[in-house]
Amino acid sequence: MASTEAMSPIVEIRNVTKAYRRGGQIVPVLTDITLDIHAGEFTALMGPSGSGKSTLLNLIAGIDRPDAGELRVDGLDVTALGETELADWRASHIGFIFQFYNLMPVLTAFENVELPLMLTPLSRAERRERVELTLAMVGLTDRQEHYPSELSGGQQQRVAIARAIVSDPTLIMADEPTGDLDRVSAGDVLGFMRRLNDEVGKTIIMVTHDAQAAKMARRILHLEKGVLTNGER
Amino acid sequence: MVIPIAYVARNLWTRRLTTALTAGGLALVVFVFATVLMLDAGLKRTLVTTGERDNVIVIRKGAENEIQSGISRDQARIIEMHPAVATGADGQRMASKETVVLISLLRRGDEKPSNVVIRGTSETGLGLRPQVKLTGGRTFTPGTSEIIVGSSIASRFDNTAIGDHLDFAQRSWTVVGTFDAGGSGFDSEVWGDVEQLMQSFRRTSYSSMVARLADPGLYESFKADIDADPRLANEMKREQLFYSDQSRALSTFINVLGLTLSIIFSIGAMIGAMITMYASVANRVGEIGTLRALGFKRRAVLGAFLLEALLLALAGGVAGLLPASLMQFASFSTVNFQTFADLSFRFILTPGIIVKTMLFAVAMGLIGGFLPAVRAARLNIVDALRAI
Ligand SMILES: Nc1ncnc2c1ncn2[C@@H]1O[C@H](COP(=O)(O)OP(=O)(O)OP(=O)(O)O)[C@@H](O)[C@H]1O
Ligand SMILES: [Mg+2]
């Protein structure tokens, strides 16, 4: 992937700062973060609990806003977008994978995966085709009509992965995707994410506590008390 | 761009006990609301169908009903001869001079007597009311103490079967027939020969006069002539309007009481819907955060929860209307506020009432669901996702 190095980065973070206010006190969470992520990279973000990993992920994903600094994704200044523009932007650019899968319990696997496509102009038939294809990729063709409660944790996370990739987003954001899975299921999920990166060239940013999981990534970043400790690029 | 309806509907189904209880609360209010409107519609229908389209009724000026009214024999003769009154096939004027008196009769299984209208009429009077049909026996013979009774009198009062005798006005009257007046007010009346009744009640003047117009267009001029004639102290009204006017006081009473009750109950039902919807939002904070993260907008979330409240309300509306529609098969009686006579009528469900009731249910749902839906829409995405 030497060619990607030459291109401008897909995520550009410059001197980003974020603090939360808690009981009149300001708690700094991220301090002066500067970071580039290139298209096609698989990045693991590690660090102790409370170091600000999720917060950084949320900023890049456009569900939270920095207090200061610049944040560009695919050349676009995300911080300048209004609330509804940002929602549209997320729908087309970001795929989320959560620790607890966050599937809608009343929707079937098929319907959960179809959800992001509801935000696109695709027809019903086109949506069906895309959903079936994506569920086949994660090996759940025979579980389409199952509800999340009828699936194992690993299967649920594969449904969630299918939901994250079905609309072909620019970035896949995974916050501890294996945090709630046993070794075998975790291996499955990580293997799949790796293939997604290898074979389809998806850019993935993954928060993890697990060194084993981090090994799957091509690049590991360490966050400590809101500061990136390895200036590694 | 909207959250799928399946998501909304299945969430209601998942919490079906809560949904059923909340919808049940709404249904109760809907039931009260609908039956009040049905009662009012039934009352109006009964009194409007009491009148015939081309019939006019003449009463004493200022009288609100036939009981209060009086027309002397001379006045009656003048009015009867007016050219606007139609002439029948037999050459007779199509006008019926009538006397209307209240008598007390015992309702079946009741200790207290109720007021019943007894109407002295004639062959012509029967002819002027085509909705009145004999269902048993025969009609009264003029010049005798024979009477016929309306269907709701026959079904609810003692001694009203054919062959029975009713004692009033110092005479014993023989029931010789029963009639059905198509659900109109006449069903709650007893009819006999006008001259016989006037004799025994010692009356010298009639109560009212009903006439068929020779041409419907003659109404205005006929009315003007009666107003202008110095020998007359009478006024004329269209029969339908006259009887429907009689329901006004009762109708107002029913509406005010019923709608007041509905509004008070609806506050309870709306609070119930609100509590249910707040719980629904609280249980799904994480899901809301996820939907928003996926790119669904605040207004999509607002829409989804309003739709949920709407579906809840529709369920309540249907659940309330079903038992209300069964009320149509029941018949009730009340006291006509204008005449204090017993009046029997039905609950009637019209398409207009269905629409009004469903709108009322939907309004309750939307008002109750509004604040919870706003709360759902205002959730912060990061906070909502941390709630999991
Ligand atoms: N909405 C918020 N309000 C107040 N404080 C917050 C908020 N979100 C995060 N924080 C605080 O910011 C800090 C970083 O949180 P963050 O969730 O980013 O940590 P993390 O590295 O993902 O931790 P973990 O590994 O436990 O998930 C924590 O101290 C947290 O309590
Ligand atoms: Mg975290």
Beta strands of chain A, count = 10
Q: Roughly how many Å apart are the termini of chain A?
A: 14 Å
**CATH homologous superfamily grouping of chain A:** P-loop containing nucleotide triphosphate hydrolases
Number of helices of chain A: 8
Order of helices and strands of chain B: HHEHEEHEEHEEEHEHEHHHHEEHH
Low-confidence stretches of chain B: none
Alpha-carbon distance between the termini of chain B?
A: 25 Å
Q: How many E-type strands of chain B?
A: 12
Average pLDDT figure of chain A:
91
Q: Please count the helical segments of chain B.
A: 13
What class would the helix/strand composition of chain A place it in? alpha/beta
**Which ligands does the model contain, each kind named once?**
adenosine-5'-triphosphate, magnesium ion
Number of domains of chain B: 2
Which CATH C-level class of chain A is it?
Alpha Beta
State the helical fraction of chain A.
25-40%
Structural class category of chain B? alpha+beta
Choose one word for the global shape of chain A: globular
Beta-strand content of chain B: 15-25%
> What is the domain total for the residues of chain A?
1
Topology of chain A as a string of helices (H) and strands (E)? HEEEHEEHEHHHEHEHEE
Approximately how much helix is present in the residues of chain B? Answer: 40-55%
